[in-house]
Amino acid sequence: MDDQAAIEKCLKGEKEAFRYLVERYQAQAVGHGAAILGNREDALDAVQEAFIDAFQSLKNFDRTRRFYPWFYVLLRNRCYKLIAKRREAESVEDMEILAPPSTVSNEERIGLERALFSLSKEDREIITLKYLDGLSYDEIAEYLEIPRGTVMSRLFYARRQLQTKLTGKFH
Questions:
Q1: pTM score of the predicted model
Q2: Region 135-148: what's the mean pLDDT?
């Protein structure tokens, strides 16, 4: 089964077909949610709520689009709602989304995580989509529903902010 077949079956009342979409995209969605929210537990909640939103809104899905970029918008909205609810910032030491590569010391990894989480959520999100997920400019534009030029501009400024944080040149 592919995404389109699963969506068609769901629209015909076969609710079990939605399980295919959940199983296919859940891990990716949790990773994106964790990048936005800063922790896995909140990401799991946001992903679950976003899948419920997707199931309930599937009749409004434009079948000329791919499923995950459409779903990502729902997930992103759920994450931002959670952020708005919890407003109190968690300590950076409690946040760990990057797996430590063997060539990077623990101190360097913690420094990178701190720098990443000191960025705005928008900058952190676009850096994550580009460098941790490896998406192209066009794919990011589709996920965020913004023009390609805006992606390039936001990435330029987000990289500059991250570089400034990593080199210790805080304003």
A1: 0.61
A2: 89
